[in-house]
Design goal:
The complex is a heterodimer of chains A (about 260) and B (about 160).
Chain A lengths: L5 H5 L5 H26 L1 H14 L7 H16 L9 H26 L10 H24 L1 H4 L13 H21 L5 H18 L8 H17 L29
Helix pairs in contact in A: 2-9, 3-10, 4-10, 5-6, 6-8, 8-9
Chain B lengths: L2 E3 L9 H5 L5 E3 L6 E3 L10 H5 L5 E3 L11 E7 L4 E7 L5 E7 L20 H5 L21 H4 L6
Antiparallel strand pairs in B: 1-4, 2-3, 5-6, 6-7
Classes of the chains: A mainly alpha (about 260), B alpha+beta (about 160).
């Protein structure tokens, strides 16, 4: 199972061009969904307005070198390792889900576009990466879903309470789960069931990529920009309008020095 | 001045939900970000402001104190025991204040609940809060008003 390209097996019964067209449709759905989201929420407009305001309040003008270094630092910490989430379980779960999904999607695309015809041999690492990515997504996603989700952890709602904000995470983990089950059934030659789970896998993909407008899918495009803006505002002194930190001595007793509460 | 959340700064960690003594900080069903669902029930304790790791919670100033279009941002520094306010008026004028959070030394006068006696069943079922009536320094106990007397007059 781990060494078999499920899409090459599928191409024996469905033309590979149909699978490729499905992927292109999914990419188009994400593009259209994100565009509609931007037009409806006007979040990009707000973001640039806010950036302009922050620039006016800046205490110092950042040189291009400084800006570049901040952007690279942000990419390294806030974007690639989601430092915003602190050093807690939430960050580990997010990283598992994030990198699992990237590996799953990239290996899917490579196997579908490069190795789904009958005359090509898939390198064994690609199916392994596909399964590994799906497993990582499931691990991070279900951990988040059952234990770390703020609705469960802070609001004390039961894990089975569904709200609109769950559309993204739930469709993501269900897609990965169904993909794994389909691959297992296909490699075990369980006729009938593999077709059912293939259909469910396709349907869950449609919900995940077609539901961008209603779900939190597009956060992965907005978050990096917001993180860069936040760090630039910190460096240029505008500090998102926050008061300047106190320069008073510790006149009110010993003081409490504890780390910022970032352990969720 | 009740608090509100900038949803773009919030990352939905839930610290404010946990700490709010009035239980009015909740998680939005669509965006999974914190939201003050009942600002008029806010105690203005600023626990959420202090707890927020992303400085995503602001205070909404009263109209008589700052006209509309202003922003009030708060920063609490636990170590120095100070609270800083930055009020920005709609014409761009700024006012900055800094005051002590408390004049009592940190860590003192905090009830050591774990060291205290276990409450009895009667204590738990009683209307009195922790340390009442002793903590109120009322030798005669809590005031008691008869029900009938309570109905006289107009209450707002």
């Amino acid at each position: 199972m781990l060494a078999t390209n499920p899409f090459a097996e599928l191409a024996k019964s469905i033309p590979s061009i149909a699978i490729q067209l499905f992927i292109i449709t999914m990419i188009l759905l994400v593009f259209i969904g994100t565009l509609l989201d931007i037009l409806h929420k006007k979040n990009v407009k707000y973001f640039f307005q806010n950036a302009k305001k922050a620039k006016k309040q800046a205490k110092k003008i950042l040189a291009s070198g400084e800006k570049t270094s901040i952007i690279f630092k942000t990419i390294g910490s806030d974007i690639l390792t989601t430092a915003e989430l602190g050093a807690g379980k939430r960050r580990v779960a997010h990283l598992l889900g994030m990198y699992g999904t990237i590996i799953f999607w990239v290996s899917s695309a490579v196997m579908i576009f490069g190795y789904s015809s009958s005359n090509t041999i898939t390198p064994s690492y690609l199916p392994f990466l596909w399964h590994f990515g799906a497993l990582m997504t499931c691990l991070g996603g279900y951990w988040f879903w059952f234990f770390l989700r703020v609705d469960v952890a802070a609001e004390a709602h039961p894990w089975y309470r569904l709200i609109q904000a769950d559309l993204f995470v739930l469709s993501l983990v269900i897609t990965s789960t169904l993909g794994l089950i389909w691959s297992f059934l296909q490699s075990s030659n369980i006729a009938g069931w593999d077709i059912l789970f293939l259909a469910l896998f396709g349907l869950s993909n449609l919900v995940l990529f077609g539901g961008v407008y209603w779900s939190k899918f597009a956060h992965m495009f907005y978050k990096p920009g917001a993180a860069i803006q936040k760090n630039l505002a910190k460096a240029d002194g505008s500090r998102d309008n926050l008061p300047t930190p106190s320069n008073k001595p510790k006149q009110f007793g010993l003081g409490i020095k504890r780390e910022a509460p970032k352990h969720y | 001045m009740s608090t509100f959340v900038y949803m773009t700064r919030c990352d939905g960690c839930g610290h404010c939900v946990d700490i709010c003594p009035s239980d009015i900080m909740h998680i939005d069903k669509v965006t999974r970000r914190a939201v003050n669902i009942e600002p008029n029930m806010c105690w203005e304790c600023y626990s959420c402001v202090k707890a927020c790791p992303n400085d995503a919670i602001d205070a909404r100033g009263y109209a008589d104190f700052a006209p509309m279009g202003h922003s009030v941002r708060v920063l609490r520094d636990e170590e120095k025991g100070t609270i800083s306010w930055k009020i920005k008026f709609r014409n761009g004028n700024e006012k900055n204040f800094e005051s002590p959070i408390t004049t009592k030394p940190w860590g003192k006068y905090i009830p050591k609940l774990a060291d205290g006696e276990m409450p009895t069943k009667e204590d738990i079922e009683s209307q009195n809060l922790y340390s009442e009536p002793l903590g109120l320094n009322i030798d005669t106990g809590l005031p008691n008003m008869e029900k009938m007397k309570f109905k006289i007059g107009v209450y707002y």
